[in-house]
Protein 1
Amino acid sequence: MSDDSISRTLLSLFEAHGVIMWTAMGFLVPCGILARRLKSVMPHRWFAWHSTLQSLAVALMIAGFTMAVTFTCLDGMPHFSIPHKKVGLLLFVLVVLQRINGEARPHAAEPNSIKAHSRTIWEFLHKGLGYIIWIIGQYVLFSGLQLVDSTVALVQIGWSMLQIVLFLLVFMIVRFRERREAGMTAKLKSKPQTSYHT
């Protein structure tokens, strides 16, 4: 293989790595988080959306990580030598662990029953790790784009801020909706029942 051919292969892998990782962490993972937040809005569909989006993100990240290792080997560069690569490795490990954790989830409680202690702990860890992954992912995207173009990296900061605003907006809307429905349910329960005697 000629040097020119190797250079084109490296460039293709580098570009594909960036596109795939941005699609996973910059789009699919945030959409998966939003799907979870919309649980009360679409109770029968949220899990399918959440699971599908996050599964696609994991698959893309495995592909993107493989590409990164491949073009690093082909280029003769040291592995995990800069912050982007080191934090990227950490992100990849956390994503794989989160996926395994998702598959190992305890069964959800039946309606009107008490949630198991193990389920409560699992939900806390799963949600917490999910947000940690998102935060680390935004840094990895920013640091990766900074290696290419500092202006594009600044755009990524704007996109991360927009995601935060969207998360908060959806959280407030859903919480308002849940409280309103809870209030209406409480009023119906407290309303005296009219009895009719013949």
Note: The radius of gyration is 23 Å.
Protein 2
Amino acid sequence: RDFCLSRGLGDVYKRQRIKKPKFGFGFSGDRSAELNVNAIGMLAITVVEAHDLPKMDIGGKSDPYVKVFVHDYEHKTKVIKKDLNPKWNETFYFNVLDLSGQIVFLVYDSDIGKDELIGQIIIPLAEIAKPNIKDLSLI
């Protein structure tokens, strides 16, 4: 099954073994994050939670975390140990240089040595710039 953005956007995004992640989006007036001189605005992204992640570890669990990329900026959530339904509720701020880029979410299982990719989601920035879109759930 493919993920589909909620709120009737109708665009389907390819999935790789991730079920029901939820992310919040919003353009922010928060002054704790520094706005780049070349940016057209600042984007606040909240990585909320994921459900039914695959078992990646021998013990039947995963140690998931999420990396979020916008343009050349990257943020990473904390690792949630031994959880297939993690709740992060972490907000990150990104300078948006233009709307031609995309938001990339990579979900990993933290392991000793090399972390394993659980899945990824890519959302065009232009999709979240539409009026009245504040929260998007991928189902």
Note: The longest strand covers residues 41-51.
Protein 3
Amino acid sequence: MSRNTCMAGNLIQYVGVFSSVLTFVLGIIHIYVKPPSFKLHFKSCGWADDDMTTWVDCNSEWQNNWGLTAVPGWCPLFVGAFGAMMLRPGIMQVCGFPRNFLQYGFWLIFQAFFSDFGYGGKIGVVTGWIAICTAIVSFVAAGLHIKSTRMLELEAEDNFIPKDED
């Protein structure tokens, strides 16, 4: 693979990681503006329904902040961190994701739709479109068989066959 195509692959990867870092920052902003509450009721919770709520909904505020219903609020933070680690992943080296720009393009579309567009107003929309545009370029790069240095390293590891030591 020529040096220019590898440089192009690295540039696409850096722009994608930049969009993931923006998504991570968007997650931090979202958590800062809408911080989770640690308020847990016990004394004020009864065993019978009152006029405003049922007894089982007494700690619904905790559920909305820390239960599974809170996952969407944390989505930009986790997806952005995961995407930013794709440059030099360390722990993700085991699964080797992404191995090509087709996978990376699908990841960026997932990031845009589930972690960018719905958060942070215009900042989220701009971040989402950066991810979508980078995904489109990634699909073109996949069609042209362009790879980044990281993808070439993964490919070399896959082709490595250890010798039997007898």
Note: The mean pLDDT is 80.
Protein 4
Amino acid sequence: AGRVSGWVWWVAAFTRRLVEDPLFYLFGRDHGETGLQYIAEKVPYAEKAVLLAGRVTYASVLVDPGMLVCLVAGATKMPLLYFYSLNIMGTLVRLAVIQQAALLFPEHVEYVLSIIHAYQHLLLGVGVMFVSMGSWRVLW
């Protein structure tokens, strides 16, 4: 898209991904089954992931290091060194794929950005509403 320099994008995106993943891993490691049950009760789509807890593999952390995968990796006591290594590699690959897609389809990226720019205030309000509703459900 050309609006942010390449190194700034890489640092911001990489940092953003790696700040939350270890927190979920540590939560899973420290709280184990209790943590999995808590998440399953509070987050609607998490129940299926909790049922698959025994099936989280090293490839899962490499391919999709999201909240649930990191939580389950911690709960199943995946070694910390393996978790960090796979998480970092997976994050770098994911960011490279995103960057290449943006370079291959610049017109599409610009089109989506123009829609976001035109409706940014509405999208912000909807986003705040959804986060508030989700937080309310988790906390209460």
Note: The chain has a mean pLDDT of 84.
